[in-house]
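Quick one - first record:
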Amino acid sequence: MKDDPRGKEMRKLLTAALALALLGAGAGAGAGAEGGDTRNLQVSAIMPGLGNKYRSGAFFPVAVELGAQFAAESGTITIEASGSGDAVPRYTTRFELSPGTRYRYFLYPYCSNVGDSYVLYVRDAWGRTVRREELSMKGHDQQSYLVGIVGPQGIPGVIEREADNKACGMTMAIVAPDFMPPKACGYELLDVLIWAHPDPEGLTPTQINALEEWVLGGGRLVIAPGDTWQPTAATFLAGLAPGVVTGVESTGDLGALEAAGAAPFGPGSSMALTLLERPTGRVLMSAGGRPLVVRGKVGFGEVTFLAFDPTRNPFARWAGAQKFWDYLLGLGFPAEEGGTSGGTGSSPGGRGYGYQYRQGLAERLTGSMNQFTEIRPISFVFVVGFLIVYVILVGPVDYFVLKKLRHLEWTWITFPTIAVAATLVAFAVISATRAARVYINQLTVVDWSADGRMERTETISALISPKNDRYDVSYRKPSCELFLAEPAAGRYGMPSFSFTTNYDVVDSADAGMSALQVLMPVWSPRTFWGRWRTGSPGEPPLVVDLKPVAQGLEGSVTNNSAVAFDNVQLVHEKGVCKIGRLAAGESATINWQKSLRFADFMTRVNSGTDGSGSWKRNPRAFRYDAEPLVMAASVGADSRYYPAENVMQWQKWDQFGGGHYVYDLASEMSLRTLIESGQAIVIGVCEDNPSPLDAGVTAPERVNWTIHRVCAAVSER
């Protein structure tokens, strides 16, 4: 039976249509893989950096806004970093979108160097690349002061300028309220954040918590409610403000502002004044008997309240606006009565006057933690002796023995046999001297704020492996911020070997950041830094009760924990009091005149290098002598892990070299400002570490210390 011609044509048409359909599907998949298919999943906005800024040694936020039009979508957002370091992290978060929804996701890469580059990928559930974009941001100059401004535009007087050899520069980061990060580490690149007319109504709860956590953890916030004072009085800002906001009135007493800005206002000028009752901070300026500028401490941070509106006239057109901001932010110090500074007393963000990045305490501490006494290097004598024996065996011994046996041709067998035997002996000796298991050195520093609102933890963990292997690393702490430090070479730690490794960083609500599949090269330590903050943590392990007396302090320090503390010391603007060991439950009575014992180099600190008698009046004396005490006094005389004597020698060299000493641990700098404000800090070290590094292995700790630093207000009772 013959085929129907019409049926044959129909089959041909169906075959051609099927082929075209398959070809179109393949092309669509290819286009999706190259980033072309956006019919359903749409990337509507990418905002890299905080105000398009990022800086070395800090996390920075990247916001990505996604939407699904017709169907549900899921997939991943990944940021791949590349640069001069040997570690190449990939930061990944997953997304899930319902049809017709739009959501904003945040990622928080860590910047090791502003020269690093970052590429963002948005991939769907099938792994196809929907969007690829190289992130374009401005790397912040470390010699400049980075000022964040919330709002659509800048603030009069806050002017970007280059740094010179006399003063820091200034850079602005304009932050839209919608893109304020919902995690505290998104703010850490800032030296200060200014918020005029603050209104948190449009912020999400996570954004509010992040800002509050950043301030309590050591951030600096300036708020200026102006005549729209109600949101400040009725929101979380009321708990941060250094007083009670009650209303607005007008004032024409602008003399204090004119003195700070070294310029007059126009005749008859007046401005609205936000009323701040019962100020809890230091009143820097007043107008008509009302507080005009008030700076208060909250947690480890600082909140400055401006009772006037800096965005409106007469301040906006005032010629002294720039000098006022320099004064307020610590870039200029108008003299007050008695010769003390009217500024913050702290350097920009706690980074040093005229901040210059160079090797600081963080790098030195990292190198110190990389010392593993279990790994003994092969001695030079053994290597030389082994080579001499080997040369003698393959040379004279082999020749004369075979010649005596009259079989010189056997050297084809004896020579490789000696070489193999020597290799096995060398391998056995090396295996016997190297670490046979994973080891971890860990030092945790826990700071307790005087007002009981914040516990801040920073931990450094060095991990070393007996073989090339990959590990998943985490501290399993909510909101933990984790990064892999660059290897520290030099005399303070083991030599560093460069092994390029790709690894993933994931962030979860219950475990914080985790580093996955980190390559651990044999004998080459990797150092991890983690930090997190806890609000309202409860009673600290060291309970401090102090009051001022004529010559110093008196009171008590009590060990309220179940473990003993060694080398307990009290740091105050008057000097350092060495308390010594405190057993569990033991108290020590503080009588400053009886308890004070200075080391030789501390005598100069108490008197002041210029005879001023106060660290407040001599910030240079504080920088060169007192700052190392906050960390060096914590770990005592054990110079393996923090070489205090080496730090002092280096400081002496750097001081006479005319350079600035770099104290690059942010937590240390906020403690410095607390000491300058009159608080005392009690430091004690114990061997109970509540925050071990989880690397998926059971590893003995060579160092497993926790340093508790308890801040205490000193006031009359």
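second record:
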Amino acid sequence: MKNDYVTNFSYLKIPIRPRYPKCISKFISYFMKHGLIPFVKILGPLLGFRYPKNGVKRLPECMIKLKDGTRLATDIYIPKKVYKKNSKCATILVRLPYWKESLRILGYAYAAYGFVAILQDIRGTGHSDGFNYYLFTEREDGMETLEWISKQYWYNGKIGMTGGSYFGMTQLALSWDNDYLSCIIPAVTSTLNLWKNNGGLDIHALTTSIYRIMVNIVSNYDLPDVSIMTTLMKERYLNPRYALYNDPIRPKTRLQLSSLKGKSIEDVKKLLTGYYNVKNFDPTKRNYRIYFKFLNDFLITKGLDKDAKKMSGFLDMDASKFSQPALFLAGWQDMFLEKQLEDFSEIQANATGDAKKYSKLVIGSWAHGAVGHPESKYKNAGIARFYKEVLNIDWFNYWLKGKKHAYQDIDNPPIKYWVMGKNIWKYTEIWPPKNIVYKDLYIHSQGRANSIKGNGVLNYNLPDNEPTDHYIFDPMDPVITRGGRNLDLLKGAQDQKDAERRTDVLVYSTDPLVDGIEVTGPVKMILYACSSVTDTDFIVKLVDVYPRGKAINILDAGIRARFRNGEDNPSLIEPNKIYQYQIDLGNTSNYFRKGHRIRIEISSSNFPRFDINSNLGGENKSQAYILAEQTIFHNIKYPSHLLIPIFNDSSKKS
């Protein structure tokens, strides 16, 4: 299949080789064993925290036995004073699937600042026993772990949690109807289903990356030098044939995620073992054959339909019982951003007490644990700031130690967000902020908006009787992803020059801005288009163009034509008939500076970030794909336009 490859791992920036040479790996291993304490004492002040004064005692690995017999591998880091005096102390729990040994720095750091730190490999990963159910058992296992902590000699009634991505979810799985937790810091994570509400597109590369991660964490006892890359994974990243979409308009009934709502863990186990015809299933042991089959159905073949609004593990979540203040961390270029905004709004609307009054949302320019914008620096919203927010000694000092002046933003509005381009922090009570005004930016051309060399224009003027723009969409020659809200792929804002050279990409730009414009809030595209086929895709990208020509992506999204009326109401389109498509590009806060241009790109693919429409409409199975002739309208009757939220600086409060 190599002849079908349209990109490579180097361009996508996907690591496929060992992270470091052997000599460097040995040094890191030695350093992790002997150099962490002095490093933590240097790192803390560099991040803006006070100098840590505690020595640290790391206890031998402890295996906590759960009620079903599964043992969870757990490391305990205790301040030496607490250990020697057998005294009381607040606890910070980190439950993660990514090998607790790889993040032992967290254990040493929290213990050095006077907390007992507990790092635990979740069920079926790292050194722990058991079958991993992909989030289904995190609440049950976490509650048993909290109960175990409450019986330890140091327990003083205060427990906090922290972590990002999956181990942000392990916190949120315990966040409602729970008297043990005092506070949490869920970073770049969500309770909501990532596979829902993407305009009907499948988040192809992200699904592949999650599949790769889950295979690795279950297959390796310790952190491997390089993650497994199977032939299937490689083909899905590089070969468009493995991304072609041609589902029937009404797929066959499958096991649905939503059907598991209200069921106990035992019910879920019975349903899954019955579905896979497994006898004598032992949940305390790893069963690779069944696990990989389950994972393949859940992520790759769609044999398990991810139809629920919430993710597995959160189907029965009750936001009105959200129990503790939470410091949510999000990033403008992170894959969880849109879902986190929904999560936080749900908590604001339904939670009570301190959970409602003091929960916070901080949105930086970050990607998923990485730099999200080329102008991100250490002191503002750079990656060092992200790790400072995740570690957040001040938040824990406030809630776990009662130091009432420790967290400086405690009385500020609940949402703090970074304005890219202006490079400043702002606060708001709600999202989007109240003082924004929506304006329409219309696309124009003389019928040749193809590529950066075309004549596409973007401005506030309503179009007149203008000629249409056309391009041919070839599913086997897709536009290649460069940046965006990715996981393994190159993340964040990147130069889009390669995409803009293509004739199957329409480019519309404003003139250089006379005054800067701050776009803060949700951005939408109203697109009028027709196609020669019965189903196809339209992709839109919002771009910030610098005076010297660098064009960085701010937002990108798309829509599958059959889902133009919603993912639950599919219908094919009539060839060459004009339809209106509303494309929700997502939320951002970006200041387009004076001299910059606002640009949008319109195409029909963004591979491997999204899957690729075969243009077949669920039929013609004898063919893999067909070409589509796409026509974009911008005239009096069909005024395609970008709807942007402009922040009104004349207001003093947001």
